[in-house]
Amino acid sequence: MTKRAYYNDGALSCEAVVLDCVAVEGGYEILTDVTSIFPESGGQLSDTGRIGDAVISHAREDGELVWHMADRAIEKGIKVTIVADQEPRMDHTCQHSGEHILSGLASKLFGAVNVGFHMAEDYATIDLDTLLTHEQIQQLQREANRAVQRNVPVSCVVVQGEELENITLRKQAKGLTGDIRIVYFDEGNVDSCTCCGTHVALSGEIGYIKITSHMKYKGGTRIWFACGMRAVEDSLKNQDIVDTLAVRFSAKAEDVVSAVIRQGDELNAAKHQLRERTQQLQKYVAAELLEGAENINGTRLVMSLQQGGQMNELKTLAEKVTEQPDALAVLFAKNGDTLMYQLARGKGVKHSVRELIQAVNAAVGGKGGGRDDFAQGSAPISGASDVEGTVEQIRNYCKAVLKG
Question: Which of 11, 66, 75, 205 could form a disulfide bond with 200, CB atoms 3.0-4.6 angstroms apart?
């Protein structure tokens, strides 16, 4: 059995004896009789640290044993000093303690049950079985931070597994035996739960609990949250965003949202107006292309190569051209280092553009496909590409196809 020194007021260091050292992929696993390095368990990340001169990147539980992943071997039987890294421990402890406060208050305020908890290096989540509204999420965050401000005590007691039946807790694992740790926040007024993690001694040590996001998840609510310095860094990042937008829109920070919405509305209106004018312009361009089209066995072959433009504009032009039942449109547009193309046929044209686009793909080195009446594709343009010459070759190919 490995004794857990980190349960002694969150101890970061201890003296220990090396019981075993095993070579594994990526390093060595070291077993000691005591450890101050918390192993990954209960949703909480592993501590990092040192055993003597060895750097510990991870620790894992194996029953009542704790194995440490080290970058070098340590001789079996020697005495060593084990030191856990302070910042990761404090970070993980804050997230775990914050999770207790959020889960406990979600239960007391809304009857919501925590059905999942995950902690990563850059985020933490809680899954609740109840769908909470935005207003309830805000209420939960306010009450959680009130619990932090009250600086309520956090206490742990150890009981035997059979005693749990007579103890009322927010959450307790089933089938536990032996020594079981129960964690109380404010003597259970905030939370009470069986837990193997590390916790603050007073809730004020968490500093700040911030719910960063929430969404409907499996009929309930998934909450993303940050505590301590994670919450501070997230707030600083968001403040930078708001300040940048405030400068960009020449607005006060509190007016940024309305300024962004206003510009979005203006942009949507401008896009709508541009779309209408583009369609009007494409109508005249289509008429001009049709007037200059070559008639081959009753089919007007309309080909063009444009500079700039977007795929949707090219599609609109193809649609305008093929409103004429005898028109076959093979349209290209150069946009930067990309060649886009749209192929379409009028209702009176028998030749399939789905088959025709395969020849275009081969000629330009592109990818595309579609239906018998409409197809599109694109190809990269290199410095050595002769786009105009290639389009002319495709013109000759199309003419041959139409001539039969």
Answer: 205
